[in-house]
Each structure stands twice: as structure tokens, then as C-alpha cells.
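quick one: NDP bound model?
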Amino acid sequence: MAVTVQPKALQNHAARDFRMLIDGAWVASDSGASLERVAPGHSVTVSRYQAGTAKDAERAIAAARRAFDEGHWPRMTGAERSNILLKAADLIAARADELAFLDAIESGKPISQAKGELGGAVDIWRYAAALARDLHGESYNTLGDGTLGVVLREAIGVVSIITPWNFPFLIVSQKLPFALAAGCTTVVKPSELTSGSTLVLGEILIEAGVPAGVVNIVTGTGPAVGAPMTTHPDVDMVSFTGSTGVGRLTMANAAQTLKKVSLELGGKNPQIVFPDADLEAFVDAAVFGAYFNAGECCNAGSRLILHRGIADDVTARIAELSKKVRVGDPLDPSTQVGAIITPQHLEKIAGYVAGAQDAGAGIALGGSQLDLGLGQFMAPTILSGVKPDMAVAREEVFGPVLSVLTFETTEEAIRIANAIDYGLSAGVWSRDFDTCLTIGRRVRAGTVWMNTFMDGASELPFGGYRQSGLGRELGRHAVEDYTETKTLNMHIGARTNWWMPR
Ligand code: NDP
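yep, here:
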């Protein structure tokens, strides 16, 4: 059984009340209603957000439209925008403990991990600031004496940004600074479960010098606030991270007015392991990949595809290490796995484990929830004997549940890896260069890790194949995603008339 860290009650902790940011002002929702967030690790209300409505979303979209069409932001120099983003990065760093605390209590993630995510987010803001100065188009001086072609990159306009609860600050940081770097204006809707750190980001951006209306933050539910952000004709682009189901709905909604859509959706990421791999390094990465963020991670390494010759030994070693993982109080600095986001989500995870058992899988470790007195927690779980057609091998469980499958030949491993609807990321473990590159080229995923797992950098694009999404975040092209190209076709000298040649 995993080591447990009993949650301590949050004493003298007053729930924090938040307003929404529309057109530079902190406002109440049109409905006057609010949403309460109960901390998943401590069973106490920690935040109250405004329950925004479609009317609030429309006000925010109108403010963003005005700021784009008439405001200074899209017309500033790249250097001016860059300096504001750099100031924002400094302010995020200065308030990192406060932001990490909010993410930890609202999402249930371990505080040490939340602090790490804040460090990563600061780096992304700085990287996007650098790109703001480098955004440029192309010129064609090769079209003959009479023509000069210039291809401009222009900010696409008003962008709706919709984010989930699993990495509240990190995911908004994978979108917003790039949209701002390009000169766009935005309406942001964080998850109704974890809105706190995004609202503090609003304070930071105003202090950094982002003009009113450029960043609007509307809290509330997906159907009430998110849906109008995907249909409104004044929105030019939607950038969404969340479930594949809502991603599909977002695309259908956006299709009505042919908005550009960028989607970062689910994953069921395989780690393919060959007998010649550094198995000690892999076992550690397997445990990290499965339980990091309690498995509530689109990148989770939830599907091990082990060579049959090593499967039993490696599974036993993973189970041994999994028992040492410290699960419990998100605010205890020693905790590695925190709480599950909601009681309903815990039920969904338990349902997948029960379904796998019914279908013939065995439980090599865990398999049930952990009663720690406060909050909701799930034991690290390993399912053995999983077959590729079982739901647990194909669908995103989004919990600390590892499925172990086996293979005999490289071709079979590739077939199993590709035989699902997702294609977000994958891992391959082997000391053989050819094996790593063969898997790297043949597995259909946006990222393939070789002898490592869930590494990343602001410079490296991230996103999925097939039903894992559309478009890429991060990397130097991320800013371009928030632009349109425009061709300036210029004529030089006398023009040949169409109806009467000179
Ligand atoms: P959702 O896809 O429902 O939520 C993501 C965001 O979309 C939230 O801000 C949500 O609002 C919003 N949203 C919901 N409905 C609509 C709508 N009709 N129009 C516009 N926006 C909407 O994910 P869940 O939080 O419900 O999680 C469900 C499953 O999704 C998880 O179990 C997991 O499998 C997967 N998931 C994947 C993530 C990833 O990183 N790829 C992240 C989170 C979840 P709100 O929730 O505030 O109502």
C-alpha cells in the first residue's frame, strides 16, 4: 500500500472571494450568483467565484473586440508588448507562492509540484515575450521586376481561451502569453473548479501594464460561459484544452462562424519497453508517468507496453516502487500524489477499475479509494493482464491507474500503440538507437520521449495527433498560431493592361 500523508485541517483559513475581470474592472456576475470551491484534499470551502452568465461572456467579448479594433495593444511594437510580458513574468515569479497555494488547495495537487509548475509557467511567459519581438512575415523579391510580394503576419483578433482544472496556471500560460505576444485580445474562462490562480493572473497583468479589455476573465460553467465564447461572431479563434467530447463540441460550435480552433485534448499514452532498456530508470519513469498529478494529466503514461520477456519482473518492480509513493495532504511538502478533483471524478475512476476487473484484468496494486479522513484520494493502482480492446486500455481514465499490456515483436508494439483514437504522446525505452528511432517515427503521437518521460521545454511544441487535438502549443510557432497571414502584392512600374496591351 502507498505511504499516506494524513491531511491536516485548514484552520483559520477564510475562503477567498473573487470577482471577474471585464474591460479592466473587477465585476460581479450578471446573475449575482456565485460558485463555491470545496478543496478536494481538505473538504472545506476555499474559494468563491462569480457564476458568470452568457451576458457576462458577451460583455467580455465586446470589450475584447473594442480593445482589438480600436485599442493600442495590437498596434504596439513587439518590443513594447514584450516588455509588458516580461514584467508579467517577474510579477508571476514574485507571487509564485500565492499562486501555487491556490492551485494546490483548489485542484488537490501537491504543493511542491504546484511550485514547480509556477517555475515552468514563468519560463513560458519569458519565452513568449522573446517571440513577441521576433514575429515576422516573409518577402518575395523573386517575382520579376514588376512585382514585390510581402506576406504579413497579423494578430488574428479576439481569442477565446478555455482551460481545464488539472494544471490551472500552467495551461493558461501555454496559451495567453502567445496570444498576447501576437497582439490579440482575449476572453479567458478557467475551469469552474480552479479559477483562483487565473483571476490572480488578471491582477498581475493589469499591474504589468496590459490595457483594459485586452485580457478579460469570466468565471462560471462551461455551458453558461464557455459555450457563448465558442459561438459568438465577434470571436475570431478558440483555444481550448479539456476533454475530447467538449473539444468536439467546441469545434462544431466554432464551425457555425468558421472560427479557427486550437484543441489540446485527451491522451492514452503508451510507454513501449524493450528488454535492453535501462530498466531501473524506466521503473522510476513509469511510476512518475502514472501517478504524477494523480494521473489527472493528458500526458499520463497510463499504458505500459512491455516486452513479454520482462513484463512480470518489471511489473513487480513498478508495484514495489509504487508502494513508496506518498499520497495525501496536498499542502504537505513531502506529498507526491494529492487528492482527486471531485467525488464524482473519483467514482468515474473506480468505475474504470471495476470495469477492467469484470473484463478479466487483475489488480497488481491498489484498486480502491483511500479514506484519509478529509478529502477524496485514490490509491496508486496497477492493472495487469489488460488487453488492448478493454476500455481501460483505450479510454482516458484520468486517475492514478496504470494498465500493463505486453508485446512480442516491434511491429506488434507499434500496432498496439497506434490502435487507439488518441495520439498525444508516447515513450520508448531501449539502449538501441535503431529501436528508438523506429518507434519514434512510426508511433502516431505529437511527442515521443526516448529513454525519458514527460519532459518538456518552452521551446518544444506540444499537441496531439488524431483525437488528441489540433494545432500545437509552445515552441517558436506558437505565436504564429494566433495570427492570420496577409499578402501584399505590389506592382512596380508600368502595368500591362488586360484589354489593350501596350
Ligand atoms: P471539460 O472538457 O468538460 O472541461 C474543460 C473546460 O471546458 C472547462 O473550463 C469547462 O468548463 C469547459 N466546458 C465545459 N462544457 C463546455 C461547453 N459546452 N462549451 C465550452 N466550454 C465548456 O473537462 P472536465 O473538466 O469535465 O473533465 C472531464 C474529462 O476530460 C476528464 O476526466 C479527462 O478525461 C478529460 N480532461 C482532459 C484534459 C486535458 O488536459 N486534455 C483536462 C481536463 C479534463 P467547466 O468545467 O468550468 O464547467
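Residues 236 and 258 are 8 Å apart (CA to CA).
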